[in-house]
Amino acid sequence: MRKIKKISTFLNFLCNFSSLGVISCGSNNWHISLFIYSFEDTFMSSYSNQIQTILKDKYSIQVFDGEASQSYQNDQIVSEINNESSRFLLINLVDRLAAKTIVEKVETVNKPIIFLNREPLEEDLANTDNAFYVGAKPESDGLLQAEITNEYFEGFSNFKEKYDRNQNGVLDLILIKGEQGHQDTENRSQYSVSGLADLGYEINVLDTRFCDWNRTISRDYLAEIYEYYKDDIDLIISNNDDMALGAIDFLKEQENYNPEIPLYENFFPIIGVDETSVGYEAVVNKEMYGTVRNDYETQVQIIDKLIEFKLNSYPMETFPYEMDAINSYHTDGIKVSQKTL
Ligand code: GAL
Predict the structure, then answer these.
(1) Is 44 in the pocket of ligand 1 (CB under 6 A)?
(2) Which residues pair with 39 in a beta bridge?
(3) How remote is the CA of residue 46 from the centroid of ligand 1, in Å?
């Protein structure tokens, strides 16, 4: 037993030693562990595929579905932290507040880790060289949603003249939120509304609800409130594309839906975030007026480089991307609308 253990440790040592971390040392090969909070999330599925596409020629990757349960994901993570073959952990947490305990655990075994998409609290990353965060910049996503809205209405005066559906002199909107406590929910919501105010709009949030990034929940939400607000709504801002698409699904069921004209002219504009492939298609089909790209391709490039730098102990001073918070990298959103197509 002891002998086997020794041989496997030696193999691991050889693999660890191979400077580029290329895994081709037989069945004891080490791997990278990728944890996704839920495979049912449209955006995270594309993210996970992109990670595998970019990294698959360099590393072997084991992917875990957290099934939206932090305790279930904790078991997966702990077992990979203790697994000597797992050399690097990429973690999309179910609950971002779980980060602290995980950082403490990886510190004891000196295993590098990147949290992606669900951001730990700043203090959780403060005292470690092993833990990083890579994700979107939700403040910029929100501001760009405001800009896209303004692009459609062409200023508040023009809005009041041509688009104010109940003629009350304010922009009446519905805000569809993602998950409560998620940094993208909080900041996209706040900055889309404050961004519109900064652009000179008077705003009235008619109604808002957490719809957990989910298309069906959002469809049902709109179904519930629509009768009451249908003559007032001037705009729907959604924290992501899937929930925007849920609202669109509902509007397409309405009697006055006319597929011959753009849905935003038929009803009112709906603006999302992500530019998932279904989201992009809805912009092209003139159903969603616009969205903001959640630039996961750049995020995966940063992840790729971080893995390379940490596994090879390269000095972080030469890292090609700039940190914008403690051990963190946030990518800017990119406008996608009828004008940018
Ligand atoms: C957001 C994304 C959402 C959802 C969420 C999951 O950044 O916009 O669609 O995927 O992450 O944490």
Answers:
(1) yes
(2) none
(3) 11
Mean pLDDT of 114-135: 97
Can you state the angle between helices 138-153 and 183-198, rounded to 10 degrees? 40
Which atom in ligand 1 lies closest to the alpha carbon of residue 138? 7
CA–CA dist 240, 138 (Å, integer): 11
pLDDT bracket for residue 7 (50, 70, 90):
very low
Say how many CA atoms lie within 13 Å of 338 toward its Cβ: 17
- CA quadruple 67, 71, 75, 76: dihedral sign: positive
Q: Which residues contact 340 (CB under 8 A, 6 or more apart)?
A: 290
3-state DSSP assignment of residue 175: strand
Strand, helix or coil for residue 135 = strand
Backbone phi, then psi, for 132, in 5-degree steps? -130, 165
Say yes or no: CB of residue 94 within 6 Å of ligand 1. no
Strand blocks (E) in the chain: 31-36, 61-65, 86-91, 113-116, 131-136, 171-177, 203-210, 235-238, 270-271, 290-293, 328-331, 334-337
User: In this model, does residue 20 exceed pLDDT 50?
Assistant: no
Angle at 42 between CA 245 and CA 139, to 5 degrees: 75
- Return the half-sphere exposure (C-beta side, CA atoms, 13 A cut-off) of residue 158: 8
Report d(CA 263, CA 271) in Å as an integer.
12
Closest CA to 134 of 112, 150, 164, 154: 112
The span from the CA of 18 to the CA of 59, in Å, is 12
Residue with tokens 């993570």: 77
Which pLDDT tens digit goes with each residue over 162-175?
999 999 999 999 99
Q: pLDDT tens for residues 37-64?
A: 999 999 999 999 999 999 999 999 999 9
User: Is the CB of residue 72 less than 8 Å from the CB of residue 66?
Assistant: yes
